[in-house]
TrEMBL record:
In the C-terminal section; belongs to the PPC synthetase family. CTP binds at residues 104, 114, 131-134, 149, 163, 167. The chain holds residues 165 to 390 of 390 of the full protein. It comes from Dyella flagellata. The gene is coaBC. The lineage of its organism: Bacteria, Pseudomonadati, Pseudomonadota, Gammaproteobacteria, Lysobacterales. It comes from the Bacteria. Its cofactor is Mg(2+); FMN. This is Coenzyme A biosynthesis bifunctional protein CoaBC. Residues 15-226 are annotated as: Phosphopantothenate--cysteine ligase.
Length: 226
């Protein structure tokens, strides 16, 4: 097999990708989760590996096979576990792509035993804020080239650019969820934003989008760090 130029876009680079949802346990049988399937992040990890990168994939609870070529997979459940795994994996990494849908809050405490129902009484769960993985990476120097994702239901560009700056990212991949796109779907459509530019990637299957995303990351990385 002859490697094409595209196969080596990220040759020799260490890339960390997070993917999937996180689950925040309430008690031994219940949790707070979200609708992320992990498919976009897994496609991105596979595309990075095909581009020649040494890829570490940090995966929340998903039922997906590890993409061909991915060097290492670390399975986690909660945002705290993902934070710890990503922080360690990102040491010395060149690029971090945060495609995971990290839970923003977790129950203040995890009940040791299954909570019992009390008829006719509302239940209030107290939630504590989770650490922001991307923001904590960008606060360290040196840190990898940072790519975030933003799944929004409205004001996509405004919210995405706001996250780009607030979290200190190099690039953000934004998409509108709903209308048969985004979570729990085969297709996606994303727009990439960086400080002084953007690139629209029209509706396509997640593997094709992942390939284009990796091409754009490689070229921005080259501009910023190369
Ligand atoms: N993210 C993260 N750590 C968190 C929450 C989010 O690293 N605790 C990352 C996600 O992996 C994603 C990006 O931040 O790459 C944007 O996630 P999003 O949920 O859209 O941003 P939030 O800042 O949590 O804003 P909100 O949920 O209020 O829209
Ligand atoms: Ca969030």
């Amino acid at each position: 097999i002859v490697a094409s130029f595209a196969d080596q876009l990220l040759g020799g680079k260490r890339v960390v990708v997070s993917a999937g949802p996180t689950y925040e346990d309430i008690d031994p049988v219940r949790f707070i989760g979200n609708r992320s399937s992990g498919r976009m992040g897994f496609a991105v990890a596979g595309a990075a590996a095909r581009a020649g990168a040494e890829v570490t994939l940090v995966a929340g609870p998903v039922s997906l096979a590890t993409p061909f070529g991915v060097a290492k997979r670390i399975d986690v459940r909660s945002a705290a576990q993902m934070h710890a795994a990503v922080t360690e994996a990102a040491q010395g990494a060149d690029i971090y792509i945060g495609s995971a849908a990290v839970g923003d809050y977790r129950p203040n405490s995890v009940a040791e035993h299954k909570l019992k129902k009390h008829d006719g009484v509302d239940l209030t769960l107290q939630l504590a804020e989770n650490p922001d993985i991307l923001a904590s990476l960008s606060a360290r120097q040196p840190h990898p080239f940072l790519v975030g994702f933003a799944a929004e239901t409205q004001n996509v560009e405004k919210y995405a650019r706001d996250k780009l700056h607030r979290k200190g990212l190099d690039m953000i991949a934004a998409n509108q969820v709903g209308q048969g796109l985004g979570f729990e779907t085969e297709d996606n459509a994303i727009t990439l934003y960086w400080t002084d530019g953007s690139l629209e990637l029209p509706r396509a299957d997640k593997a094709a989008l992942a390939r284009q995303l990796i091409e754009c990351i490689a070229s921005r990385y080259q501009v910023m760090r190369g």
